[in-house]
Amino acid sequence: MLILVSGEGPxxxxxxxxxxxxxxxxxxxxxxxxxxxxxxxxxERYSFLELHLMVFLSKQRLSETSKKxxxxxxxxxxxxxxxAYYFRNARALALEAIDLAATSGQSxxxxxxxxxxxxxxxxxxxxxxxxxxxxxxxxHEGYAAGVPMIPKPKxxxxxxxxxxxxxxxxxxxxxxxxxxxxxxxxxxKSQLExxxxxxxxxTLLAELVREGRVDAARIEMASFVRFRERxxxxxxxxxxxMERKGLSNGxxxxxxxxxxxxxxxxxxxxxxxxxxxxxxxxxSLFSYNLDRKFRLQKALSYSLGY
Length: 306
Known about the structure:
five-stranded mixed beta sheet; Rossmann fold; 10 helices
């Protein structure tokens, strides 16, 4: 199994030191790559980075693939310019992963990193739209092993949760509600620098995660938990077998809420009774599965020449 990752720069998933894409000694992993590796190693009992099983694709290379994509021809909800960006990038990474699987003869998991970079007033809805747009992009290409990695508001928030000097890993939910603007007062990057006592360089942050100073199992922030759970799921089922059999809801569905032992997603409406939550969930899954059935039937018709 391989893990294909693509991010925004050296301070998140890393960079290539030569040819692009890259792996092994030609790949300089960033802190987010080591977080991916932590979760994967816990699941699979071996380090993908140490065994050169993680492949990095730059944002620039992914953009080149994205520009070659044809617009979706099947019916669907119109997307704003911003969420369309996430959708296109996920489609492009899905195609790169499918190509890598064909050339390597191995199953491939794809992790797409993008900061949410929202303001304090953006709310959870904007983050959810970005997550779902990535999921829909992976799904559009028939790819079941896509993993959105979208820190809210940015990767510094996840790292600060673990590295803050007072009560690390505790009371971190509030950090997700801070502004992602680096020019703002008390910006997250400044808070991280203050916590470390030195500039938070890509090399330093990567080493801290690699050494275990940042523990992926202890970060309980909504955006991180959703990423961690999705990665854990595809590691167990990289071919999407459970999803095709209806045993998994797949990538869509966020803002998790537990009701009577069941994990419900994306329907948090204060004041509504449990029955309403569960009914909303049933209706959403019905609509989602109906849409998937329509698209699969249409694709089959095309392939048979109907």
